[in-house]
Amino acid sequence: MNNSFSIFGLNITYYSLCILLGVIVAYIVIRKLSKKHNINPKYLDDIIFYGLLCGIVGARAYYVLFNLDYYLNYPNEIIMVWHGGLAIHGGILAGALFVYLYSRKNKLNFIELTDIILPGVIIAQAIGRWGNFFNQEAYGMMVSRGLLEKLLIPDFVIKGMFIQGNYYLPTFYIESLFCIFGFILIMIISKKTKKIGIPTSFYLIWYGVLRFIIEIFRTDSLMLFNIKIACVVSIISIILGIILIFKKEKE
User: Fold this and answer.
1) Overall domain count for the chain
2) Could you write out the DSSP letters of every residue in 35-70?
């Protein structure tokens, strides 16, 4: 599969394009939601710009850390993010840490900020996952074409999942689809609820459950010994989301 194209001699990968498109849509969503909250737009612009940089570095560092043997042998590839290898959990953790420190410095409500930011994050994830399609990565177990057709997977996705003579489960597609559903729901919640923390709780639980299930079928998961690290992070995410809901219900 062709995963890049050229404009005026400049080579552009579809992976990078998907990430960029996700960032643009996320920015639009975040700015739209910010109108409901009395937050200086300058703060949001700072958070989006620097949070994005931290997120990219964190996503790459996380991926490299769990593939350290490979990158110690090929250190020049560490910066080649356009080849793939951005772990969303690493990006979220690094971005969240920046937002927390920024909120402390500027006396802002951290959870209120995550309520605004996370709807943008989940739609960016939905779009960014298509970069995995073009790179033919983040897929699941070997399956039959018949099964993919029964699952109503689009034909162009099925063709893209025909790799080295076999068909594979497009877990990236399933995750993207449910991230879109999650985005619709979190936007409805953000519009209807007045309680700070509920959109954040929803994201933590929704994506936690989704990613845990997806990881069961993925064959290229990041591992810690014999444990899929994404499953561990997902469980922690779900627990944090539930705790936040109970905490907000008592307020």
Assistant:
1) 1
2) TTTT--HHHHHHHHHHHHHHHHHHHHHHHHHTTHHH
**Which tens digits make up the pLDDT trace of 77-106?**
888 876 667 889 999 999 999 999 999 999
Angle at 57 between CA 63 and CA 118, to 5 degrees: 95
Query: Is residue 221 a contact partner of residue 138, using CB atoms and an 8 Å limit?
Result: no
d(CA 161, CA 153): 10
The span from the CA of 240 to the CA of 91, in Å, is 18
**pLDDT tens figures, 174-227:** 999 999 999 999 999 999 888 899 999 999 999 999 999 999 999 888 888 889
For residue 6, the surrounding DSSP H or E stretch is strand 4-7
**For residue range 12-36, what is the model confidence (pLDDT) as tens digits?**
788 889 999 999 999 999 998 988 8
Task: Tell me which residue range forms the domain holding 34.
Answer: 4-250
pTM: 0.91
In whole angstroms, give the CA distance from residue 125 to residue 121. Answer: 6
End-to-end alpha carbon distance in the chain: 53
200 DSSP 8-state letter:
H
